[in-house]
Every structure is written in C-alpha cells, then in structure tokens.
Amino acid sequence: MNITPITEQEITQLRAETIGTTQKIHFNNAGASFNPDVVVDTVINYLREEATLGGYEIEDKYRDELNNTYRLIAKLINADDDEIAIVENASTAWGIAFNGIDFKPGDEIITCEMEYVTNIIGFINVQKTLGVSLKIIPNDVQGNFPLDVFEQAISPKTKLIAMTQIPSTAGGMIPVVEIGKIARRHRVLYLVDACQSAGQIPLDVKEIGCDMLSVTGRKYLRAPRGTGFLFIRKGIQDSLKLLFMDGYSAPTVSLHDFKPRGDARRFELYEKNRALTLGLGKAVDYALNIGVDRIWKRIQYLATLLRRELAAIEGITVHDFGAQQCGIVTFSAKGLENALVKNKLADKNINVSVGKAISTLIYMDKNHLLNNVRASVHYYNTEAEIQVLCTELKSMLVS
C-alpha cells in the first residue's frame, strides 16, 4: 500500500499545535507524549463549564461527544463501539480482562519475553493462588519471536495466550497478527497488551484476531494521563467475570438478581473523569485525522535515523534486537550511568527516560541489562532534534 508521508509543512503545523515542542526536545513519548493543544483545551474547557454549571448538567450537555469517544476508539482499532470500555490506564484494562478469565488449576498461560511487569505480576498471582502454569517463549538469537516454537508449546491445557506487542524497555516487536492466526486455529483466548502500540502503529483487532486488547492514552495516542481503554470481543463478554459492579455496569436490578449491560461498558463503573474522556476522544480523533499509517511511517523513519546516528558514536551501544523495530530506541553510553545520561540531557532540555529492568523483567534479565537509556520518537520530532541529542551524547563521552 502506498502511504503518503507526513510532509515537512505538516510537521511544522503539528509542532505549532503542540506547545511542548517550543519548550523541550521530547524523546520520552513511550512514557507520555506531549498533548496537542486542542486536547488540553478540550479538558480545561470542560472542567471550567463543570465548575460553573454543575457536573451532571455538563455531562448531559456533552453526552453525544462523550459517546462519540467510544465510536472514535472503535474506528481506531476496527472494532464495534459496544466492544469498548473506557478505563483509567492500560494496567486497569489488562487487569479487568485477565482477572475476568475463569482460570482453573492446571490451566496454562503462554507469553513472551517482552511482557510488562504488571502482566507478570498477574501471571504469578494465578500461579500462586490457582495453580496455573506459565510458559515463556523466548525470542531467538536474532531477537525474533519463534512462531514454530510457540505453536508447539500450545497444549489442551492452554487457557490463554497473552502477548505484549511492544515492550517498555526495548525496541523490538512481537508479531501479534501471526500469533493471532495460530491462536484462532487452536481456539485459545488471546489477550494483547497494546499499551505502546496504539497511536504508534495501525491496529486492527479483526486482523490481529485477539479477544481482548488493552491500551493507555498517555503514550503514543497523545491523550491525557489517566485515560485508557479495553477492547473485549462481543462473543466473549458474557464469559468474563465482572470484578466490580454498580448501577451503570448492571442497570437491571431487583432485590434478588441483577443483569449486566449488554455491551463492554459492563466493565466500567459510572463515575469517571468526563473531561479526560473527552480529551481521550479528541486525541484519538487527532491521530485519525493525520492517519496512523502515516504516523507509523514517520516514526519508523525517525527511529531508524536515530539508531544509525547513535551506532556511529564511539562509546554508544544500541540494545535493540529483531527484524521489526519500533519508535523506542534503547542504548547505553560507555562509562556513564544511564541515570546520569538522562539527567545531563535534561539539563539541556532534552527528555529521555531510564528503562528499568523490572519493567520488562524477562527480556532485561536474559540480556543482562540492569537498565538502559530509552529515547522514544514520535512524528512531531525532527531530524534536527536527533542531531542535538547525538551532539550532547558525544560531548558527554569526551568530557
């Protein structure tokens, strides 16, 4: 498919619509991206109206816009809007899905080495409390996920396949579409953590073939912190346990029984931040208007450039593996603590983060990494900003 690149004129305009780009060079998009100004204005304006006219009254006024957030999310991932629940973050979304599964002693979970710490804690919990076993499929020596080894690991006891598509502290990717084809062939539940994926790469839950998918808003979607969503395929919603309920999630109630809603909003509670919900919707709309396929093309270009420039610096080691890599670029500088590198760059108004071993525990332990420097690019970053980063790193290494 021929994808039209984001032009330099568009980049200039997108940066003009993002006040943060005038203050900092921001390479911490895998932590939290700069919000577009329109997202910030949407949240603030709603809160101002709420403060002067009343919370319930303003909710009624914006009911159509609030409901439209579900439709926008559904469009983003090619789902139906009754398959979307809006929650506070990806960990909440993942936990609702995972803990809703009716695990039994002897059940098996299959995962990858890129799993996030929250998910690993969930696996350990059901191991300890329910006698569920865990199979971890490591990447091969080139850093690629071995689909043949994975399929051979599936057994009649396999209850869940859980995969994180893009890890927190590495630049590689897990082939979730190919895994989904295998999961469907074996009729095994499939949960995808797309925390770092949404807004960075095109997502199509029908193509992926997943039953559940968890997302945060603050990262590549450029939404406010405290936003996220959960996709749960319509056909499995009734099979998942509800972890909490109120009159919104279960609106049909008698003194002797109750009935959950007939859509994915059964996994929500009534009370949530409506201003942030609108902000999430505006951020999704912003990404859709640009085109996520175009965003992904731009991110791949910038990440490839950054890796190439870093690899050319004597004393810098790039730690990313695998045939397909994302906008997260991880590296270390010889003789310098990674936290020191982060702090020195911060002094120069350059934001990066330190990727901790706990965040992607299996991968980091396998590769003997205690931590690394994580520089994550987004479409609004520029080639010039990459050159500034590399110049500052060179200066550190010779000082």
TrEMBL record:
InterPro entries documented for this protein: Aminotrans_V_dom, Aminotrans_V_PyrdxlP_BS, PyrdxlP-dep_Trfase, PyrdxlP-dep_Trfase_major, PyrdxlP-dep_Trfase_small
GO molecular function: transaminase activity
Domain Aminotransferase class V, residue spans: 26-389
One of the Pfam families matching this protein, by short name: Aminotran_5
Required co-factors: pyridoxal 5'-phosphate
Family that this chain belongs to: Belongs to the class-V pyridoxal-phosphate-dependent aminotransferase family.
Protein name as catalogued: Aminotransferase class V-fold PLP-dependent enzyme
Species annotation: Mucilaginibacter ginsenosidivorax
Lineage, opening ranks: Bacteria, Pseudomonadati, Bacteroidota, Sphingobacteriia, Sphingobacteriales
